[in-house]
Amino acid sequence: MPAPVAQAGLQVDDSPPEQPAPRWRAPMARPSPPPEPREHLPTWTWRTRPRARAPSTAAVLSLHAARVQAPHPEFEDITTIDGVCEVLWAPPADSAHSASEPTLLIEIPHGATRTSDYVDLRLRLAGPLPHELEHFFYVNTDIGAPECAEYIADRLAALGFGVLILRCCVPRTFIDCNRVVAGVPGAMIDGMTPARASYIREPLDAVLLADLHRRYHALVERAYARVCGRGGLGLQLHSYAPRSIGVDKVDDDIVSALHAAYEPALYATWPERPAVDLICAGPEGMLADPALIADLRARYAAIDIGAEENATYRLHPATMGYQYARSYPAQVLCVELNRGLLANPFVPFGESPIDPGSVARLSRPIADALQSSLDRRR
Predict the structure, then answer these.
(1) Which of 66-70, 93-97, 223-227 has the lowest mean pLDDT?
(2) What's the first-to-final CA gap in the chain, in angstroms?
(3) Domain total for the chain?
(4) Domain of 270: which CATH number?
């Protein structure tokens, strides 16, 4: 049996909280009739997997068309996998083209930002884990990235571009879905956290996590082929901590090491990270579209936000992001956004509230630069 998940106020409660449903909804076990369109609802809906015996006709609610639509046949193999990945389709605003192919894929490989993402998978693991491991989860997940993806998708859909979003639901606390599963568990690779931490020792847990990683990338690979393989663009969206923290391994002492690193006196000595870092090159050089990079940097400069290129790191062969960027040269861009500018405030070891105004300010240049790039490809 897994150890209780009760540190830092975490409680496992089967009853749903009495609050409005978030825009990023947990995937349902079965499709249900969508609600009647209302003006305050988002312009997109999740694509859920139907039950095995049900016909593959999960409904998609398009507020642009103000009616329920059947799924586009080409999307039948790109649907939500419970506990692995949530799939979202933002159709173009023009109802005459509402079933068109997506022209942009947004992948959020560290999209497990909700406490429920951590708790749900923790309860499936049998082995013991370090005390207060949820603190590592909070400080090391890409908060704000799902909200920024939401903004970008809404803006581009309103301009006539279909956007497909894949949000990973597997916390990188247990296995990092942006890493190639290889090497020594817990060992850093050129400063990057490993695919699997050394505190995952139970063999059945290792098998489960490897299977989640495999299923996620089987889906993601199909999505890149569907979008980038047909001439579209890919955006790998991340957020990172405000400073580069000097922690050199992920083991049983990771929580105490992080607590020490975030002590105010020591924290102030760590290098600050850029507001935006465009991760556009690998060991062999530029992998992204240079025109898109130049346009994006100019748009950020126009609103007094510094956007750097590969200042924090480059795409590394140990990352899955590199594998996809290399497979589709000049079509995929990886972007890191500073969590300190997205959260209000940034809470290292707890839930950080995301500021909608900051999301819009940091996301709009990305959406507008992608629009220009997609226009050039038409």
Answers:
(1) 66-70
(2) 55
(3) 1
(4) 3.40.630.40
